[in-house]
Amino acid sequence: MPTFSASDGTSLVFHTDGDGPPLVCLPGGPMRASSYLGDLGGLTARRRLIRLDLRGTGDSATPRDPMSYRCDRLVDDVEALRVHLGVEQMDLLGHSAGANIAVGYAARHPDRIARLLLVTPSVMAVGIEITPEDRLAVVREREGEPWFADAYAALEEITQGRATPERWEAVAPFWYRRWDETAQALQAADTEEKNQEAVPVFAGEGAFDPEANRAALADLTAPVLLIAGEVDVAGPPRAMAEFAGLFPKAELVVQAEGSHHPWVDDPAQFVSMVNEFLG
């Protein structure tokens, strides 16, 4: 497996697959190994995917300093990867919580971004508010699902500040368009592939500076594609439209019936949108 050293000496691993121009991919979770991204619905037919295992996840080493799991510090690892790859600019994709790292990188190194692709992104890095009703309204579109009643009741509890592991487990079907064997396997692997100790550090105090990020993104000259899911509980389309509006050259695409993993929900539609954007 290809390895490189971060600025603090931590050994990091990335995985490559496919043919064509490189696309650097940052996983979400937060702090989940990149394996769940797979081939992103078949993007490997035209792109060489470079999936980074963030420090302390997947095949990358555990750092000496646990505070280096903080999102703003993970940006330095992305820059170390670019230098290792020997490219002046790169196409960068961030999914979910990984989009916070991608946004931080674009804000800090705007001249290193060729194209930026944000897939059902988390909004912590830019400080967009998502209300409980935003989330509840978008999932009510799925009222006909057999598991809906239990999942909706659990989501109401979570949005009212009464989250428990059992309630989080109950809302899992909302993360996918179809709660089938593929989705259930991906969800079951989440616990094993995620560095639970790193999760609270990722978004800890000082991890995000939304005001500074917004100011920097307003000057970003690189093209941006933001893919939202029509029924994504994590990133309702209203919030995603606000997110896209922070960039001068952004396109927002809402994948029909898509949820939080659009390449799983409809691989053909997802690949078509991404290929059209990347060219």
Describe what is shown at a glance:
The protein has helices spanning 71-85, 98-108, 132-139, 148-159, 165-170, 181-193, 199-202, 210-217, 237-244, 262-265, 267-278, and strands at 3-5, 11-17, 22-26, 48-53, 90-95, 113-119, 224-229, 250-255. It has 279 residues and is an alpha/beta fold. Strands 1-2-4-3-5-6-7-8 form an eight-stranded mixed beta sheet, sandwiched between helices.
Structural features, described:
This protein is an alpha/beta fold. Helices cover 36% and strands 16% of the residues. It is built from eleven helices and eight strands. The protein has helices spanning 71-85, 98-108, 132-139, 148-159, 165-170, 181-193, 199-202, 210-217, 237-244, 262-265, 267-278; strands spanning 3-5, 11-17, 22-26, 48-53, 90-95, 113-119, 224-229, 250-255. The protein has an eight-stranded mixed sheet, sandwiched between helices. The mean pLDDT is 97.
Estimated radius of gyration: 18 Å
Q: How many individual helices?
A: 11
Strand content: 15-25%
Proportion in helices: 25-40%
Please list the strands of the largest sheet in the order they lie side by side. Answer: 1-2-4-3-5-6-7-8
Distance between the termini: 28 Å
Q: What is the general shape? A: globular
| SS elements, strand count | 8
Question: What is the residue-averaged pLDDT?
Answer: 97
Question: Major β-sheet, in short?
Answer: 8 strands, mixed
H-E string: EEEEHEHEHHHHHHEHEHH
Poorly predicted ranges:
none
Structure classification: alpha/beta
